[in-house]
Amino acid sequence: MSNIAVLTSGGDSPGMNAAVMAVARNAAYYGMSLIGIKRGYNGLLGRAEKPADDFIRLDLDTVLDIADLPGTWLRTARCREFLDPAMREKAARTLKELDVSGLVVIGGDGSFQGAMRLCELGIPCIGIPGTIDNDLAYTEMTLGYDTAVNVCTDAVRAIRATSRSHDRPHVVEVMGRDCGDIALSTAAATGAEIVVVPEVKWKVDDVAAQLNRQIAMGNTRATVVVAEGCWKTMAPFDVYKFLLPYGKEVYPNEPMTANRFASVLKRKCGMIEARSTVIGYTQRGCSPTARDSIFAFEAGAMAVQLLKSGVSNQVIGMKHGRTFSMPIEKALAEKHHFNRKLYNLINSL
Ligand code: ADP
User: Fold this and answer.
1) What is the mean pLDDT of the chain?
2) Is 133 one of the catalytic residues?
3) Rounded to whole angstroms, what are the CA distances from 211 to 196, 317, 334?
4) Where does ligand 1 bind, in terms of residues with CB under 6 Å?
């Protein structure tokens, strides 16, 4: 095996560059050359005007320059065309023309599905979990999750300082798509009084009751951490009926947002002020924590070693502090374990 390739796909996550660097250093160590594919699977479909916009030879000098950069230097993208079998065959042909005999895919579950399909077409693939959401059940770590939780923890600590100054509650929305782990860890790390996640069905009135309980205990500056996906599991709530008690209109599909939620809680809890903050993309675009970088370093090394020894169709994970690999299909079939005990603890105090 003399040529391998690497791509980053799906949402970007801190640690992707560090993983590319680890793959490059290990490839160089074993005398393999490394090709970086740009913009996820798009770079394999030959749509850019110049090949240099689709792929690039990653020499050590280049990767050593990018390793500390936030984001993903190779760029990432979602590639709908890759769902089309004809397009995947084209991608496999491109890799064969480039004389690539192994591909490292850094991304989330969608990217791993793509890697599995490429394996079926004779391209050996290894996946490295890169997503801040922590929504891959088979592993205790995904690249970027620890960084995202640290960004959110810093942000919520700052918010709680000003909440304390003004004695007012605050709703903070964090990322995670359909996974509440970032919200749960952030709430636990900051001592936030209430956490709302997509894994547990909830009602606006119940959160208002929780907040009223805090106020009755003398805490007028509670923090409500909400996961971005939690609006999907909220019981139907007629905002307008509440805001305009004299009106009869019902807007069942009116979307709830952190801002609106703070305003509703303010009215339901008889408070003068309640504020909201959506932390947003700062969770994704910053430098990885040491913990994420260490995982990237180990995962990159394991990916190259697996390809070198002829292993394919596997993903790398972390369990009990150790990196391991397992078949992609089996990994994706595992069910996410939500820490309900921690959720109950946070919401009950
Ligand atoms: P993530 O990898 O972060 O979960 P996506 O779900 O958006 O992100 O998937 C990233 C890309 O992986 C998609 O844009 C597509 O190119 C590819 N992909 C996703 N699902 C499949 C699938 N079932 N078959 C082939 N490729 C897929």
Assistant:
1) 93
2) yes
3) 12, 39, 36
4) 9-11, 40-41, 78-79, 82-83, 107-111, 113-114, 117, 131
